[in-house]
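Example (one chain per record):
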Amino acid sequence: MFYTTFYGAYAPGNRKTRTGCLNPIIFDPESNPVPPGPGIGTPGDQIPVTAPPAVEDINGSKWRFAFTSIIGAVDGPHLFTKSGTQIISVGEDNIKILFVFVPLGGGLPGNGHGVLVDAFNIEAGNFSNDDFVNVSTNGNFNKGKTDTANNDGYVSTEVAEDMKAYPNIVDDKAQFLEWLKIGASISKSSDCRLEEQEDGIAFAFFVKPIRARTDEVIFAFLSLGVKQGAGGVGGLHGGQVVPIGPAYREFTAKLLSNVAILSASSLMNAKLKGEAKNLVSNNLRSIADMVKKMDT
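Predicted structure:
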């Protein structure tokens, strides 16, 4: 299986045409180690994926790490919001690795204070062109700023603004997962406050909900960073990432109460044995019913 890497520099641009939003970084070999290029792996291989905290391009511009997106791995799509090295497993699909870097600082194109905003579909491994956010000023819906955010990807902050991500976007029926303000902590709330004269970049992440299947047991796992401290989310056994919500929490509690004895590695390799397999089989109907409720 092939795996490819793309180092993208995020910059202001039209969200609907994607003009100038994500451009390849041309590295200066004197300032950076030569980044790894495409490779070939076989199912079962584990490959390291390393994201540097910052890079410098051939023009001397410096770019700060924002997040890493991986699709095609054996355990589904991944999102990492911290730099460093992660290990992913090769399956039957080609793997696409996207490193997103942002300019240091912030502000609007040209002059003025503001925050660049965009939506990212984790399962697709790419930015979404769909409308994804509403903007309110002093508690009142602001159509002009909402249109600018959804079309041009920025919100002016000459006064404080409140953004609210859509519950879902049309793209793959993906549901809101979290906000990432560069340089700040992850927020699971769909509300995102922008202070007066705040400069920066904010990404809203969306994921496709798990779908019930009758021919096999489906597992989903939302980690504390896929690996502890990694700062991301990933799917197991079926590759579906699940958004946080009351239905998910109820589903997870039910699932864990019955199959807590299974390790993450056995889930990833779908090796259900002995008593663990019987527990899953005995409770498949109730688990499937709960999954179906998440689709309604």
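Caption: The two ends are 36 Å apart (CA to CA).
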